[in-house]
Amino acid sequence: MNINELVNSKNGDLIDDLTGWVDSIRDHGGLTFVDLRDFTGAVQLVFDKSGEVDTKLKNEYYISINGLFKKRNKELINNKIFLGDVEVEVTELNIINVSKTLPFQIEKDIDTDENIRLKYRYLDLRREPMKVNIMTRSNTFKSIRSVMNDLNIFEIDTPTLIKSTPEGAKDFLVPSRKSPSNFYALPQSPQMYKQLFMMAGFPNYYQIAKCYRDEDSRKDRQPEFTQLDLEFSDANPSLVKSNIEKIVKFVFSDAYDCKIDTPFKSLSYKDSMNLYGTDKPDMRITETLNDITNLFNDTEINFLKDILENGGLIKALHTEELLTRKQIDTLDTDIKAMGSNGLGWFKIDNKEITGPLAKLLQDSEKLEILKLGSGTLLFQAGDLHSIAQYLDFIRRTIFKPSSNEMYSFVWIEDFPFFEYEDDKLQPSHHPFTSPKDNETFKNDPINAIALHYDLVLNGVELGSGSQRINNPDIQELVLQKWGLSEEEIEERFGWFIEALSYGTPVHAGFAIGIDRLVAEVLNQPSIRDVIPFPKTQSGLDPLTNAPANIDEIVLEEYNLKYINKDE
Ligand code: ASP
Question: Separation of 122 CA from ligand 1 center, angstroms?
Answer without folding.
Answer: 32
